[in-house]
Amino acid sequence: MKWQGGRRSGNIEDKRGMSGGQKLTLGGIGGVIVLIIGFLLGGDPEQLLNQMQQTAPTEQGEYQSTPEEDRLLDFADVVLGSTEDVWKSIFIANGLDYPVTKLTVYNGAVETAGCGVGQSAFGPFYCPGDQKIYLDLSFNEELSKKYGAKGEFALAYVIAHEVGHHIQNILGVLEQTNAMRAKMSEREYNKVSVMTELQADFYAGVWAHHVKNHSNIELTYDDIVDGMRAAAAVGDDHLQEQAHGHVNPESFTHGSSEQRVQWFKKGYDTGDMKAGNTFNDPNLQ
């Protein structure tokens, strides 16, 4: 993946070395989405809830970044910039405005403006309350070592997936799905959650389709394969098998490895934002 020299977004907030000191609020769409996206890493629901209720220590001081972190930060900045260029173009073509999101990098824990305190254990997440993406750069190593999703494009896919949630927020999808939560059983809502996550995977694929035409980023076939491997690595079935030795489809919140690859690939193959209505897919009902 060639990305050096690409336009940087500049919409990066560096909060490494600082962590929030308030309890995470679970009420409202923000807390719900943080919890849902926390399952991206196959986190145990009870453990995540306990962590959400804990108070994170407040620390402030000069953060000593490593050369690898500096490289990853530059990479994330360029990838974010490319998502801005791609989605602005797509939104304009559809008669819409695209308000950009910001990417906040942190380590350990971070206080958000709309979702309380997020923690690295949740994995990368999007907070609808402040329309920001949160990423601990150490997740890149976890992608490779824990989940076997190697290659630079794996992290690019993750960022593009979270931007997909931002698009859903802009279009009102997250508000609608959150409203469904109070009217459904956990089992029923899990299906809605899967549809939501697969649509974000689809949007990541759409970005990959168009990125060569709107930025200096150059992707190869191997990069796209890396993206599909990353999607498969965080499939619910793969994570459950890895963590518990068995699979329970009724508890899926993000979709199986096959489904995640399928929707990412569909986005990449079509490049059509309108072709990703996962909520109308009879196979996901």
Largest sheet: 4 strands, mixed
Name the structural class: alpha/beta
User: H/E series, N to C?
Assistant: EHHHEEEEEHHHHHHH
Main sheet: strand order: 1-2-6-5
Uncertain segments of ≥5 residues (pLDDT<50)? 21-58
Terminus-to-terminus distance: 36 Å
Helix proportion: 40-55%
How many helices? The count is 10
Number of DSSP-assigned strands: 6
Number of domains: 1
Q: Quick one: overall form?
A: globular
Chart the SSEs and their pairings.
Elements: E1 12-14, H1 28-38, H2 45-53, H3 67-93, E2 102-106, E3 109-111, E4 117-119, E5 125-127, E6 132-136, H4 139-145, H5 152-170, H6 173-181, H7 186-214, H8 221-233, H9 236-244, H10 257-270
